Amino acid sequence: MDILLILKALLLGLVEAASEFLPISSTGHLIIVGDFLDFTGSRAEAFEIFIQLGAILAVVWIYRERLLDIALNVDWDRKVQRLVINLAIAFVPAAVLGLLLHKTITHYLFNPVSVAGALVLGGFAILLIERYARTGRVQAMEEMRWKDALLVGIAQSLALFPGVSRSGATIMGGMVGGMSRFAATEFSFFLAIPTMFAATFYSLYKEWHNLNLADVPMFAVGFMAAFLGGLVVVRFLLAYVGKHSFAPFAWYRIVFGGLLLLYFHYHPWVGKGG
């Protein structure tokens, strides 16, 4: 067993957990950390599929009772039916654009320099939305209209650009539409379930040939790190959003992205095979 590889898997699993649900971009952080750890290429892409699955299963576990309630009551409860319809509406834009643009985006934009720029721009966007968005019209995600869901879905499409952040885009999209931070955050978590499952299984289908039985220990460590870390991060964010703004995450993005741009200015990035 390669201990160094296991440690890389542990670190990347924790990075996935911390960045998947906070508005700081998991894809962006995995690209950057993977590049610095020299863990890139097809093997890394297959690994990332499994740690993303671990992270989203953390959301499923935390919301298991509400998800079961939705499954049992969707036939007759109008609020549940509206929530399911809104999730479907919000899911469609990114799903369609992802299928159409996946290869192009992966080829041209999956690099640390693009990610750094997106981190900075996204940070400023969060600050502007926090300052000017009129939140509070929608206090619970069950109160959303289909127009609110569509706006969140369009916002989620922006996260196809690595470094934007899926959670950040959906939460900010909801706030622009008048949702409270808590309602927007919860809807973002629920929307993550179909979105990330679809993306994970699509990626698994595309990367199946890169899976190797010898990598099972590495995948298992990364998966468990992402799952357990995800449990902590989701609970933290739910407690945080009721009393605080997302401004600290915005400043983190700006400073981190700015430092990366400065670093790559003096150390030009070149693609790595793997």
Q: What features would you describe in this structure?
A:
This protein has 274 residues and is an all-alpha fold. It has one domain (3-266). The chain is 77% helix and 0% strand. It is built from 11 helices and no strands. The longest helix has 32 residues, at 78-109. It is globular and about 50 Å long.
Mean pLDDT level: 91
Query: Uncertain segments of ≥5 residues (pLDDT<50)?
Result: none
**C-alpha end-to-end distance:** 20 Å
* Count of helix runs: 11
SSE pattern, N- to C-terminal: HHHHHHHHHHH
Helix content: over 70%
**What is the SS-derived class?**
mainly alpha
Number of strands: 0
The whole-angstrom Rg is 18 Å
Percent strand equals under 5%
Largest beta-sheet details: none
Count of structural domains: 1
Shape: globular
Enzyme class: hydrolase
Membrane topology: Multi-pass membrane protein
EC number: 3.6.1.27
Catalytic activity: di-trans,octa-cis-undecaprenyl diphosphate + H2O = di-trans,octa-cis-undecaprenyl phosphate + phosphate + H(+)
Which features characterize this protein?
274 residues; mainly alpha; 11 helices; 77% helix; 0% strand; globular; peptidoglycan synthesis; EC 3.6.1.27; transmembrane
Summarize the topology.
Elements lengths: L2 H19 L4 H11 L5 H21 L1 H10 L4 H32 L2 H21 L13 H12 L8 H11 L4 H27 L8 H26 L5 H20 L8
Helix pairs in contact: 1-2, 1-3, 1-10, 2-6, 3-9, 3-10, 5-7, 5-9, 6-8, 6-11, 7-8, 8-9, 9-10
Could you give a short description of this structure?
The protein is mainly α and 274 residues long. It has one domain (3-266).
